[in-house]
Amino acid sequence: MKNAMGEAVSLLLEKLLFVSSLKLFSLRAPEEDRRSNRFYEVSSFLRGDVLEVPRTHLTHYGIYLGDNRVAHLMPDILLALTADQTRTQKVVSNKRLLLGVIVKVASIRVDTVEDFAYGADVLVNHLDESLRKKALLNEEVARRAEERLGLCPYSLLWNNCEHFVTYCRYGTAVSPQADKFCEYVKIIIRDQRSVLASAILGLASIVCMGLASFITFPAILIPFCLWISG
């Protein structure tokens, strides 16, 4: 029972993080027009550097391999539908990315800096300061990234692009972004008003939509999980 409860809470956290990132991904589309016009001084990047692309809510990470190539972990629904590399190697669209997040399929792929950054600014090795961890030698970082190229499972909480680059750069896979989101959720769960609010919303849903199982079950389960976890 405790294990099932843990899995349910983990799934809920992952879906909440996915929903919170929808706005982030939707912001990519307008930048597509300026992606090809943005110039990046790739000569300033060293093989093994961590490249970061800040977004509104999240940051996308990759490992620079040299020769204008960046290895990064990217969800993509097309990987589950075809093995044709001429199709899967094209720049991942918003729709492919979002569906890839849902079905949890991804790959560690290589793109140009322009395709990786999508018109945004690029920060270099900013994680070294924020994590205060000692980085491995750059060549070792790049080698680790190259060894992991190919298909991989995807999880917003447990295996995202930040986990990939921290494993390559520091030898340990961590994701401060996912950790911060979990802390926010803990604060909400610990606030007993969340239990009351979810219970009221659940009762309102039952009154308005009836006692159908797909309405009644979440209406009871969510307040119960919040109460038990609080």
Automatic annotation (TrEMBL):
GO CC terms of this entry: endoplasmic reticulum membrane; multivesicular body; perinuclear region of cytoplasm; rough endoplasmic reticulum
Keyword annotations of the record: Acyltransferase, Cytoplasm, Endoplasmic reticulum, Endosome, Lipid metabolism, Membrane, Sensory transduction, Signal, Transferase, Transmembrane, Transmembrane helix, Vision
PROSITE patterns (alphabetical): LRAT
Gene3D superfamilies in the cross-refs: endopeptidase domain like (from Nostoc punctiforme)
Membrane topology: Single-pass membrane protein
Stretches that traverse the bilayer: 196-229
Pathway(s) of this molecule: Cofactor metabolism; retinol metabolism
Main location, first listed in the record: cytoplasm
InterPro entries assigned to the protein according to its UniProt record, in alphabetical order: LRAT (IPR042288), LRAT_dom (IPR007053)
Reaction it catalyzes: all-trans-retinol--[retinol-binding protein] + 1,2-dihexadecanoyl-sn-glycero-3-phosphocholine = apo--[retinol-binding protein] + all-trans-retinyl hexadecanoate + 2-hexadecanoyl-sn-glycero-3-phosphocholine; 1,2-diheptanoyl-sn-glycero-3-phosphocholine + all-trans-retinol--[retinol-binding protein] = all-trans-retinyl heptanoate + 2-heptanoyl-sn-glycero-3-phosphocholine + apo--[retinol-binding protein]; 1,2-dioctanoyl-sn-glycero-3-phosphocholine + all-trans-retinol--[retinol-binding protein] = 2-octanoyl-sn-glycero-3-phosphocholine + all-trans-retinyl octanoate + apo--[retinol-binding protein]; all-trans-retinol--[retinol-binding protein] + a 1,2-diacyl-sn-glycero-3-phosphocholine = apo--[retinol-binding protein] + an all-trans-retinyl ester + a 2-acyl-sn-glycero-3-phosphocholine
Signal peptide segment: 1-21
GO molecular function: phosphatidylcholine-retinol O-acyltransferase activity
Localization in the cell: Cytoplasm, Perinuclear region; Endoplasmic reticulum membrane; Endosome, Multivesicular body; Rough endoplasmic reticulum
Protein name, UniProt field: Lecithin retinol acyltransferase
Organism: Fukomys damarensis
